[in-house]
Write a structure and sequence with these properties.
Length: about 260
């Protein structure tokens, strides 16, 4: 895995006139720059330029085509995007090189932005060391993800890599125990034995983790269900996992186990 840092590993790109204005008006959010499409006009863009000027944020102009490409959404960028500083976001390879991770979530095949945002919020609230959000196969970190996370995505410990399979292989090589969540898992989440360093893989609600990732899972666990319910939404399941890890970290080990 590469350990060098690209701009995409330092910023979350926010596009659209209202989302960009909101981040500029939020003094707690660091903004690296704002880019406007050449020829774009309107009262909302004037307010964006004013807000950026007040904060000392550089405003650049680029062709509409360039803005569409950099924003990553040609239909909803509205001629503007901002690179928002995410101080805790970094490449997974860099995080592994800098120290031992203990608790990590790996997302695989989760393409609904609302689910990704809510998972990021839960994992950050629980104090996990990292949430792996691959560049491929998972919803991109766009305004919908940010909104669903209630803004937590900007300060979340997001770890970037190309694919979930690459991430799981790297985590295993670093000595982490890889656990998959499945309704037919071998043991229940609340009673199964887990080592202190664990990476939980969360797949899509319909298909679960992909085949490449499944082949690397060390242990499968399930969340006990009642009332005829077969499964939880993946973001709800992630919250259960995250706070079960919190509970375990605060519970003295049982010498009889």
């Amino acid at each position: 895995m590469r350990t060098d840092v690209s701009p995409k590993d330092r910023f979350i790109t926010v596009y659209g006139r209202q989302p960009v204005l909101e981040v500029l008006l939020d003094g707690a959010v660091g903004v690296d720059k704002v880019v406007l499409a050449e020829g774009a006009r309107g009262e909302s863009l004037r307010r964006i330029e004013q807000a950026a000027r007040r904060r000392g944020v550089p405003v650049q102009r680029a062709s509409a085509e360039r803005v569409r490409k950099l924003a990553g959404n040609g239909r909803q960028d509205q001629g503007v995007f901002a690179d928002v500083i995410a101080p805790r976001m970094r490449p997974l390879a860099q995080a592994l090189a800098q120290g031992r991770l203990a608790t990590v979530l790996v997302l695989d095949g989760i393409t609904t932005p609302a689910n990704v945002g809510m998972i990021i919020r839960s994992a950050t609230a629980a104090g996990l060391d990292g949430i792996v959000v691959p560049r491929r196969g998972v919803a991109s970190l766009d305004p919908l993800v940010v909104k669903s996370s209630a803004g937590v995505a900007f300060r979340a410990p997001i770890l970037k890599c190309a694919t979930a399979a690459e991430a799981v292989a790297a985590l295993r090589a670093d000595g982490m125990h890889v656990v998959g969540l499945d309704a037919s898992g071998d043991v229940a989440l609340f009673t199964g034995r887990l080592p202190s360093r664990v990476a939980f893989v969360l797949g899509s609600e319909s298909a679960g983790p992909g085949e490449q990732v499944r082949a690397l899972v060390d242990q499968w666990v399930s969340i006990p269900m009642a009332g005829g319910v077969e499964s939880l939404n993946v973001s709800a399941a992630a919250a259960v996992v995250c706070f079960e890890l919190v509970r375990r970290s605060r519970t003295p080990p049982d010498p009889g186990r």
